[in-house]
Amino acid sequence: MSWMETPELQRMERFLDVAALRQSLVSSNIANVDTPGYRTRDIDFEKEMQKAISAPNRTPDPVVEEVSGLIERPDRNNVSVDRETMLLAQTQLQFQTGVALLKQEFKRLAIAITEGKS
Amino acid sequence: MNLFGILDVSGSALNAERQRAEIVTSNLANAETTHTADGGPYKRQMVVFETKTPSASSFGKTFNGIRKEYAQGVTVQNIVADSSPPTQRYEPSHPDADKQGYVSYPSINPVEEMAELMEAARAYQMNVAAVQATKGMITASLDILR
C-alpha cells in the first residue's frame, strides 16, 4: 500500500465499484422489462461491501442472484417497475455520495501535502 | 462493466422499444389493408424480445482483462406475423371481394395496438430515465478530477 492509498480511499473506491455494478444490474432489469422469461437480478449491497472491506486486495467476484418474492407475469417475467425506479434513484445518489466523500478524502491529502496552507 | 457500458445496455432497450413502436404503428396504419405484395390482407406483426449480453469492444476487453459481464441488454430477436384468420366482411362491390362477396380484412384490434404502443412508449421513457441516472453518475465521477 502506498502512502497515497489510505484505507478510506480504498473503501470509497470499492463502494463506487459496487454501486456501479448495481447500476448496471438495475439498468439491465429496466431494459428487459418486456422480455419474456427474464428474471430480476440484483446483488446484496451490504454483503458485497463487507466482502470488499474484509479483503480489500482480492479481485472482486460479486454474487449476482435472482430476486425472490416479486410478482410474476404470465410470461414468467418478474421485473417490478416500482422497485427498479426506486433503486435507480437510490443507486445514483449513493454513487454521488461516494464521489463526494472521495473528493473530501483527496482534499484532506492535499491539505497534508501543502502543510495546512490551502 | 464500466459506466459507459451501462449506457449501451439502456441504449439497446431504447432501440428495441423503438422498433416495437414502429411495428405497432404499421399495424395500426394497415388495419384496413386488404391488398399486399404477397397477396391477401395485411398480417399483424409482433416483435419478439430476447436478452443479449453486450459484447465488449476489443479495447474494452483488453482494458478490463477477464472481468465478467453481468449486465444484459435486450434485442429484437424476431418479427413474427400473427397467424389468426382474417376477419370477413360482406362488401360485394369491393375489388378484393371473393366470389361470395366477402372481403378479408386483417384481424387487428386498434385498442389492443394502442395499448401496446403506450406500453412501448412508457418502457422507452423508463430507459431514458436510466440513461439520465447513469449520465449523472458519469458526470459525478468526472467531478473527482476537478
Element layout with pairings:
The complex is a heterodimer of chains A (118) and B (146).
Chain A: H1 7-31, E1 41-42, H2 45-54, E2 65-66, H3 81-113
Antiparallel strand pairs in A: 1-2
Helix pairs in contact in A: 1-2, 1-3
Chain B: H1 3-29, E1 45-52, H2 58-64, E2 73-81, E3 87-90, E4 102-105, H3 110-142
Antiparallel strand pairs in B: 1-2, 3-4
Helix pairs in contact in B: 1-3
Fold and architecture overview:
The complex is a heterodimer of chains A (118) and B (146). Chain A has 118 residues and is mainly alpha-helical. Chain A is 58% helix and 3% strand. In chain A, strands 1-2 form a two-stranded antiparallel ribbon. In chain A, helix 1 runs antiparallel to helix 2 and helix 1 runs antiparallel to helix 3. The relative contact order of chain A is 0.19. The model of chain A has no long low-confidence stretch (mean pLDDT 88). Chain B is 46% helix and 17% strand. Chain B has 3 helices and 4 strands. The two termini of chain B are 24 Å apart. Classes of the chains: A mainly alpha (118), B alpha+beta (146). Chains A and B meet through helix 1 and helix 3 of A and helix 1, strand 1 and helix 3 of B.
